[in-house]
Each structure stands twice: as structure tokens, then as C-alpha cells.
Amino acid sequence: MAREFHPPVTRRKIPPFKFLIPFVLVLSVSVIAVTQYFQSISYLLRPLWDKPPTPFIRIPHYYAPNISMPQLCQLHGWGILPTPRRVFDAVLFSNELDILEIRYHELLPYVDRFVILESNATFTGIPKSLSFYENINRFAFAGSKIVYDMLSIGNLDAGVTRQPFLVEAYHRRALNMLIRRSGIAVGDVLIMADADEIPSPETVQLLKWCDGIPPVMHLELKNYMYSFEFPVDYNSWRATAHVFNERTLYRHSRQSNLILADAGWHCSFCFRDIKEFAFKMKAYSHADRVKQKNFLNPERIQKIICNGEDLFDMLPEEYTFRDLFKKMGPIPKSASAVHLPSYLIENADKFKFLLPGGCLRCRTAGAAIIQSAVGSAKNSWRICLRCASLIFAAGSVSRLFVLVFAVTQHFQSISYFLRPLWDKAPTPFTRIPHYYAPNMSMPQLCRLHGWGVRSSPRRVFDAVLFSNELDILEIRYGELLPYVDRFVILESNSTFTGIPKPLAFYENLNRFAFAGSKIVYDNISIGHLDADAKRQPFDVEANHRRALNKLIRRSGIAVGDVLIMADADEIPSPQTLQLLKWCDGIPPVMHLELHNYMYSFEFPVDYNSWRSTAHLFTQRTPYRHSRQSNLILADAGWHCSFCFRYIKDFVFKMKAYSHANRVRQQSFLNPERIQKIICNGEDLFDMLPEEYTFRDLFKKMGPIPKSESAMHLPSYLIRKAEKFKFLLPGGCLRPV
């Protein structure tokens, strides 16, 4: 009998234990990382898994001092009421005593009832004192207008008190009942907002007086974090204004698709003491964000406040990667205290912790304060990927050829993209905080800046080189007429690049008759320059500035007068000129930080315009348009670049100014292309931003976001809104 063949039995090889150890370690670390940083990973990938809400329909907001309510209502497309509506302001209160004091003082002349509800416990169930009730005397100035009640959290069952958002909803229902007991009637205005969401007086005036306002609209508030030194964005939208009816409910969520632009301020976590930061972090509905106990460490909180970082170590909540990268890192500081609540500025000493330079907070009485270190910006990993892709592209001869061709064609763009690697940022300016509020005296304003006040004002001379910016020049002269003693203006019969041009100012002199007696004018012919000079735009520009320097000296200027050196589209604000005229001890030379706009005031860019200067004139003062000092006055006016009425003016400037070499293709001058770019807020020269860090580069990439705000702009522009509508929100279309 044949023997059966049985193949040899092979045992399954078990990997040695030593190979399992790294696998287990990697797996364990990965699990721990995901569980510890799940929220950060989720926020980083949010643009992939979440969709943004439906965009609001934004209502442009117009305002200028000394414009009547009928004019303001008409600018918004509304009528005027024969008598004003009553306004009721309703808030849930926790412990924001300083912010509430600012709110009530700011709105006192315009609000008929302040409805306020507080509780003996937080939304997370932590017992708390009745702060408002215990400090009621602090609000005696508004006593007759206050409708107050308190809520005991003990009325809720244990299951509800463990759900912060349910407790918050219970508070809002109680506030809803208090509103109905306050005397409100159908047709009154009800403002629903948290205590730190403050509508501006200008907004409340519109709500009181204008006929035809929407029955419900949200209020777009400028977001600040920790103080007014850290402006974030304009994405605060939860505050609402209602024309009250019996079905109106107090809510703090989306209730309409309409939002009024630039309607006030939202100052989040704006507390005086460190202990109040720690209390709110544990107390409000998002207390689950306190992922580690050390988040409540006073030294850590102090450092974060001064650096403008995130208290919860979270990534921004954004729906696109562009917005995500734009918001990463610390919040840039602002030295502006202009266009803030007037009561805040009038009481700057009391509320200095909310103003530029006031980041240090008290922990407890007598406790030491820890000075924060300056946070560093995060570099983007995307640069490494770009570099790697370029190296890979050069892997073959054909790809290398394509790469070389691309570099020669797009050298400027590549150079700008890599600028953070090959160029260094200039020395930062020392920024002088700028304070202003209406109805404050010049002695008060000068003192806030650390200066004295003069017994008589200085004279102010405003000197510009003029090309063809007639509309902007009219706005400039109309705005500055009460404050400037002489307007010195020089124009030429040719551009810096040698293109002949008419003497636009001279030919339109009648348009400026309102300032006639103050104007010192001259023109120069480019013909006397030699051919080499004419071929060098910057040399021609320098020659113009030397000629303007001579004209200034013929204008009657004297030692000690103020000389403003700026281009025609760089407009200092009246508040800035008042400081220069009246304050004793101002620097002999300082730059003026202007709010940058592109194409119109619908496209605000940044506050990086610095070339305009203010000088206390001496015989050695030269007219220059370059850096002359390390000092700069914050938020000192407006710079509206390429802000022309006609497409032909855009074409002319693109060919005419010193950077005409940026017109790399003839198609750049195509009128249809220019019109599209103006309405989209894109770059006329198809260039990347000129920035010195990758963070700033990525932040500026893409179109300029539109603004519907016509607040805090030159008053002359708003008074003549019909004439200059192409410079205002919605006016991007230009005739050829």
C-alpha cells in the first residue's frame, strides 16, 4: 500500500516582539494626539467638512458729522419719521461692569429703557454674585431708564443645570418676559445684544428716526479681543434690532438675512482683572474649551492678553483655508483710539486697560504683574511644498526648460513670493497712539497724547504734487479747508514717464474757487530736463519734488509752521490736523499712518500707508516722500489709491507713474479687464502683495474683501455722496 504524502507543516511566523513595540508606540501616540487635539484638527479641516452659512445681505451704513437726519435716512434709502421711535436695549448680564458702564453712558441720550437681567449662577452652574445689583449706585446716572430683575438658577432641575446652552435659553426666556413688563409697545425698537456688543450712537439714531427700516436686521459690529488694542474683524453679527411686535422673541441667533454694516463694537473678554478672565472661561457656554487646568493659570492668561493670542489655544473658526491662514497667529496690535465709544476716550484714565498699551491686568490686590513676551508669527508649511514642487519640476531637461521659461515670464511674481526669504522688513515704526472723541476739548486731547496745549494754533501748509486726481483733490481740499492755511500745489505738463498731459488743475481752477485765497499754485515744464533724466521716471519725480520744495518756500511758510508732505490721494483727517495745530510738544517730524483703500472706499486694504509726513518747518526741511522718521501717528487719515471716476484715468496712471514697468502686457490696459478688476478688488498689475513674511503674504493674497461701511470717511465725501457715488459702496462701475 502506497504511503500518503504529507507536506511538511510550516508554522506561521510571528513577528518578533521587538517589532511590535514601535508599532504600539506609534499607535498610542497617534490616539493620544487625536484625542488631545481633536478640536484643533477638526477646525483645521473645517473647510473640507463644513459649509459656511448663507451670506448676509449687507446694508451700507453712511454717517458724517453735521449731516441732518433727513439726509442720513435718505442716503440709506429710507424716509424720515415726524417723531422718533422709542428704543429699548435688552441684555443678559454676567459680570462685565466696565463694559456695561461704557455701554450705558454711550447710549444714554438715545435709549429710552435699559432692560437688564442677571442671575445668581452662570450658564455652567457656578454660583456668582449679583454684580449689577451690588453696584447699582455706579449706574445711578441712568437710574430712571433701567428696568432690572434677577433670576435664581435654583428654579431649574439638576438635569437642565448640567446643560449650559439650556440654562442660557432659560435666561433668554426670562429676559423675554422682563422686556414685556418694561413698557415696550408695538413699533418701538428693541435691541437684542450681549453686554459687550455695543451699537454705536449713529446706529441708534437711524433706528429712532428713519422710516422704512427693516422689521428685523442684524448689526455688524467690529470685533475686538481683550481690549480695543486688538481689532479682529467685522464678523460679529449676533446683535439685532427689531421693530417690536407681539411675536418678537429675545434670541441671540440668526433671525434675518439683513445686516447693517459697521454698526458698533464687540469687545470680547475685555476685563480689568485676570480673575474675571478665569471666571468667564469657566462660566460661559463654551466652558468645554478649557481643555487643561493650566489654561486658567494667571501668568499664561496675562501673556496671552498682551500677545493677542487665543485663550483656549484654538484655531480660528473659518470655512475657507484662505480665511483660516489669514487668522492664524496673534492678532496684530492697533495704536488707534479713533472711532471708539466717546465715553471710553473721555474717561481714558479710568479705562486705560482697554486702550493701546494697556494690556497689563491686575490679578488680585497687590499682586505682581508678569510682563508678556512678544509672540512670534507662525511660518507656513505651504512654502516647503512649493519649493519641493519646483525641485521636482526640474527633474528632467524638458521640465527644467519649462521652469526656466516660467521664471523669466513671471520673475516679478516669483520674486515677490519668495521675498520673505531674500529681503528684510524695514525697521518698525514707533507708533504714537491716536485718541479722539467728539466734544472733547483740545487741552484734553493733547493731554491724552502726552502733549501740552498752545495758547494759539500753528499755521498749517499742505503741499502736494498733482497729476490728474481732480475728484480726490476736491475731497481733500473740501475736508481740510477749515484747518489748512495754505494749499501748495505743483503740476507739470508731462508725467514722470515723459507722457505729455494737460495742466488739469489749472484748467479746472474754478472747481476749487471755494479755497481760492488759500491756494499757492505753480506749474513746471518737463522740457528743460535732459533726455537721460526724462528716461528715468524716479529722477523726473525727484525733480518735481525739488521744484515743489522751492514753491513751498515762496508760499509764506515760516519756521515753526506745520508742513504736510503727501500725495494728493493721501488725506490727513481733520482730527490729525487739529492735533498738529494746537498741541505743544509734538515731534518735529512724524509720519502719518493712513487707512489704505484701493479703487474706492469700498475696498479697505490695511493701515500700511506711511509715506505722508507732518513737519515742524525749518529752513532745512526738504520736501520728500520717503522715510524721514521712526515715529508714526496711528490712524491719521485715508489713502485712496487709483480712485478715479473714469476707466481712461486708470489707463493713464498705469502708463504714467513711476512704476509703469509693472504694465508687462498690453492687455493690462484693456478697459473691460480694468472694469472687472475694479469691481472684484483684484490687482491691476496681476502682482502678489509686497510683504516681508509669509503670513502677511498669504493674508493679502486674493481679492480685497468688500466693505459696506461709509462710516469714518471724509465728511465732505458723505455730504456729496451723489456726486462721488463711484467712491462709495456699490459704486464700482465706471464709465470709459
Name the descriptors.
736 residues; alpha/beta; Spore Coat Polysaccharide Biosynthesis Protein SpsA, Chain A; 3 domains; ten-stranded mixed sheet
Task: Give the secondary structure arrangement, pairings included.
Elements: H1 17-36, H2 38-44, H3 46-49, E1 57-59, E2 61-62, H4 69-75, E3 79-80, E4 87-93, H5 97-107, E5 113-119, H6 131-134, E6 146-151, H7 158-161, H8 164-181, E7 189-192, E8 197-199, H9 201-209, E9 210-211, E10 216-225, E11 231-236, E12 240-243, E13 258-268, H10 274-283, H11 298-307, H12 321-327, E14 336-337, H13 342-346, H14 382-393, H15 397-409, H16 411-417, H17 419-422, E15 430-432, E16 434-435, H18 442-448, E17 452-453, E18 460-466, H19 470-480, E19 486-492, H20 504-507, E20 519-524, H21 531-534, H22 537-554, E21 562-565, E22 570-572, H23 574-582, E23 583-584, E24 589-592, E25 594-598, E26 604-609, E27 613-616, E28 631-633, E29 637-641, H24 647-656, H25 671-680, H26 694-700, E30 709-710, H27 715-719
Parallel strand pairs: 1-13, 2-30, 4-5, 4-7, 5-6, 10-13, 14-16, 15-28, 18-19, 18-21, 19-20, 24-28, 25-29
Antiparallel strand pairs: 3-9, 7-12, 8-13, 10-11, 10-12, 17-23, 21-27, 22-29, 24-27, 25-26
Helix pairs in contact: 12-26
Structure, described:
The chain is an alpha/beta fold and 736 residues long. It folds into three domains: 17-44; 57-271, Spore Coat Polysaccharide Biosynthesis Protein SpsA, Chain A (Alpha-Beta Complex), CATH 3.90.550; 430-705, no CATH class. The strands form seven sheets. Strands 1, 4, 5, 6, 7, 8, 10, 11, 12 and 13 form a ten-stranded mixed sheet that branches. α12 (321-327) crosses α26 (694-700). The longest helix has 20 residues, at 17-36. It is globular.
